[in-house]
């Protein structure tokens, strides 16, 4: 499950963030500095950063955003009437959404979920059912399930058990009407997730491979070439949607099952 890295003003703000996040939205990982946030991003797949510009400077948060632009930063703190300069810096330098502690607590969780990296990838891949010719209700349900677990290695048998059917039946039903086969689509979702991670200058191919459960950067690269016809650097340039388009148009939708 993706993490939400939190650098807040205190325990009350941290508790409010935990209450606000919907179940399954991500585990809150407490940080005490921007360096600790960076350490979290190096070892955990992160959905968002929630930080107070009173605890970390706007300059430090801006540098973090430049290294990890695909991980949104949400500023959450108490603000006083004389905080105009601070809010101006947040808006112009960091360009981050702002939630006011005590006023916006109820909408904080929704803000994290809507702006998070997982939601970004889902929006980027919104055309997948059309491009992949997923026409049946089961095909679309399976695609949605694959997206929800794309951050970790997953096998067709695991998906089949979740859906209460055999692996063979699921594979056969998913590939109906010229749709790609299931194994290739699982690889597609994982490579698209890797492409999103690699759009962060602060994330190396080795880190992306480890975060997503690939054996190595080379393993990620070979999977990327099967899916999108290009290696780790190429998928970083394509991004998630570019990987989807390359997969759908490149004749790579079938594999040995």
SSE order in H/E notation? EHEHEHEHEHHHHHHHHHH
Strand order of the largest sheet: 2-1-3-4-5
Coarse shape: elongated
Termini separation comes to 27 Å
Largest sheet, described in full? Answer: 5 strands, parallel
Low-confidence stretches: none
Assess the beta-strand content as a share of residues: 5-15%
Number of helical regions: 14
What are the key terms here?
257 residues, alpha/beta, 14 helices
Give your account of this protein's structure.
The chain has 257 residues and is of the alpha/beta class. Helices cover 57% and strands 9% of the residues. α1 (11-20) links the parallel β1 and β2 (27-30). It is elongated.
How do the strands and helices of this protein lay out in sequence?
Blueprint (H helix, E strand, L loop, with lengths): L2 E5 L3 H10 L6 E4 L3 H10 L2 E6 L6 H10 L5 E5 L6 H11 L3 E3 L4 H11 L1 H8 L3 H4 L5 H12 L7 H8 L3 H8 L7 H16 L7 H8 L4 H12 L3 H18 L8
Parallel strand pairs: 1-2, 1-3, 3-4, 4-5
Helix pairs in contact: 1-5, 3-4, 9-10, 11-12, 11-13, 11-14, 12-13, 13-14
Can you summarize this structure?
The protein is of the alpha/beta class. It is built from 14 helices and five strands.
């Amino acid at each position: 499950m993706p993490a939400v890295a939190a650098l807040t003003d205190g325990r009350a703000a941290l508790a409010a963030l935990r209450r606000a996040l919907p179940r399954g939205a991500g585990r809150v990982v407490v940080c005490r500095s921007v360096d600790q946030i960076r350490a979290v991003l190096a070892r955990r797949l992160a959905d968002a950063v929630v930080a107070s510009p009173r605890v970390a400077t706007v300059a430090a948060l801006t540098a973090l955003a430049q290294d990890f632009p695909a991980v949104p930063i949400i500023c959450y703190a108490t603000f006083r009437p004389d905080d105009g300069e601070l809010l101006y810096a947040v808006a112009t330098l960091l360009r981050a959404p702002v939630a006011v502690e005590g006023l916006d607590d109820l909408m904080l969780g929704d803000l994290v979920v809507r702006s998070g990296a997982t939601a970004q990838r889902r929006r980027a891949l919104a055309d997948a059912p059309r491009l992949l010719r997923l026409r049946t209700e089961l095909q679309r349900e399976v695609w949605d399930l694959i997206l929800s677990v794309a951050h970790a290695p997953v096998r067709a048998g695991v998906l089949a058990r979740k859906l209460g059917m055999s692996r063979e039946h699921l594979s056969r039903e998913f590939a109906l009407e010229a749709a790609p086969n299931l194994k290739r689509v699982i690889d597609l979702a994982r490579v698209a997730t890797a492409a999103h991670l690699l759009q962060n200058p602060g994330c190396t191919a080795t880190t992306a491979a480890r975060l997503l459960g690939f054996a190595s950067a080379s393993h990620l690269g070979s999977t990327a070439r099967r899916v999108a016809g290009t290696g780790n650097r190429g998928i970083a340039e394509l991004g998630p949607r570019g990987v989807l388009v390359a997969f759908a148009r490149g004749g790579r939708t079938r594999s040995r099952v």
